[in-house]
């Protein structure tokens, strides 16, 4: 049996006191391959201040000499094995159980690998997460036990990607394009000329999406 991944709780960057989450809306940031918990943390300046933000550190180190961290391997014969994405998503859920149980709501914002893991976590446990933001990521192929419940709940998901992104394979973009609209309340945009990165225009759209989530959550 494969050993479960464990996220380093001491590496998490918090915008608020993690001991005072009760009643707060929590947004988790999941960085991409070769980055670390510091990569997306500056985005909090573009996000609604009502959110407590926690930027997580992926559990794996990519092969030398690649820098940073990774959520799952992309090298070798099993680099596209979807079970690795699931394993990373399970580690995120375990972290939430241990460190974020008191939050009023929990959302996910991931870039690239972090986007794939965010969507996989949403699929693993649809009731746990209020929404997801997928920046330059994709839906992992293959069925998950929570997919039927996800389609019933249809949580809000924002998907942003660039026309010049040559990192995510075309078949994964096509799969995500077909898969998401049938199971989530999808919004998003394809950004002309954007590479495998995040733009000011995209961040403005993310801010609008998150403002709407606050309105929905506080209106419940």
Work out the number of β strands: 7
Spell out the CATH superfamily: Alpha/Beta hydrolase fold, catalytic domain
- The CATH architecture name reads 3-Layer(aba) Sandwich
Cα-based radius of gyration, to the nearest Å: 16 Å
Order of helices and strands: EEHEHEHEHEHEH
Walk me through the structure:
The protein has a seven-stranded mixed beta sheet with strand order 1-3-2-4-5-6-7, with helices on both faces. It has 220 residues and is α/β, with parallel strands linked by helices. The longest helix has 20 residues, at 200-219. It is 32% helix and 18% strand. It has helices at residues 37-40, 82-99, 113-124, 147-153, 170-179, 200-219, and strands at residues 13-14, 25-30, 51-56, 105-111, 131-135, 156-162, 185-191. It contains six helices and seven strands. It is globular, with a radius of gyration of 16 Å. Helix 5 (170-179) links the parallel strand 6 (156-162) and strand 7. It has a single domain, classed as Rossmann fold.
Write a short abstract of this structure.
The protein is α/β, with parallel strands linked by helices and 220 residues long. The protein has helices at 37-40, 82-99, 113-124, 147-153, 170-179, 200-219; strands spanning 13-14, 25-30, 51-56, 105-111, 131-135, 156-162, 185-191. Helix 2 (82-99) packs across helix 3.
């Amino acid at each position: 049996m494969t050993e479960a991944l464990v996220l380093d709780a001491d590496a998490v960057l918090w915008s608020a006191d993690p001991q005072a989450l009760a009643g707060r809306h929590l947004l988790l940031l999941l960085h991409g391959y070769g980055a670390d918990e510091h990569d997306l943390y500056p985005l909090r300046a573009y996000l609604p201040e009502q959110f407590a933000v926690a930027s997580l550190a992926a559990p794996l180190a990519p092969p030398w000499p690649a820098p940073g961290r990774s959520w799952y391997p992309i090298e070798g014969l099993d680099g596209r094995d979807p079970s690795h994405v699931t394993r990373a998503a399970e580690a995120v859920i375990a972290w939430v159980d241990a460190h974020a149980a008191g939050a009023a709501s929990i959302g996910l914002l991931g870039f690239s690998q972090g986007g794939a893991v965010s969507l996989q976590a949403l699929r693993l446990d649809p009731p746990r997460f209020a929404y997801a933001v997928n920046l330059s990521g994709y839906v992992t192929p293959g069925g998950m036990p929570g997919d039927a419940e996800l389609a019933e709940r249809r949580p809000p998901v924002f998907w942003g990607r660039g026309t010049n992104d040559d990192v995510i394979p075309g078949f994964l973009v096509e799969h995500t394009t077909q898969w998401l609209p049938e199971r989530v309340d999808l919004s998003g945009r394809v950004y002309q000329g954007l590479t495998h990165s995040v733009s000011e225009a995209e961040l403005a759209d993310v801010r609008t999406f998150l403002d709407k989530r606050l309105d929905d959550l506080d209106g419940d």
